[in-house]
Amino acid sequence: MTPSLPARLAQHRVVPAPQARERGGLTSFFSSHERKGDWEMPRLLRIACVAGSAVIDLREARIPEGVSVIELRVVMGSVELFFPPGIRVEMEVEGFASSVTHTPDPSVVPDRAAPTIRVTGSVHLGSVEGAARYAGESARDAKKRVRAATGLPSRGIGW
Hints:
By secondary structure, this protein is mainly beta.
């Protein structure tokens, strides 16, 4: 059994719609970019990654209420997205000779009022990976927690 997580990690923080930034973006050309910790996700986040990598960690971010969009353009690069459990995620990414995966947390059912993040765009000769985990939780700890809560075998979880 894994130790229980602190209450502050069990909920994502939501920004009221009128206060949310509308647009933002980041680029990673032949380099790496990482955004994590306490930051505010805009309603539309555009990410361009060419022969580089980007890690976008939303587990401690302030997320706008309603629907937000992450728009990706990836060519020979990789993008990792970490979502807090309880957020609705819709992965609509097209790929060519690439890998696109999303591993939701089956142990947490999103509330009807939970924010929705729609991931769109394209990836060519690269990868996009999305996973739901609590802040500070490793992939191994998340797998143990989900296995304990759902009874799924390790191979059925996907991390």
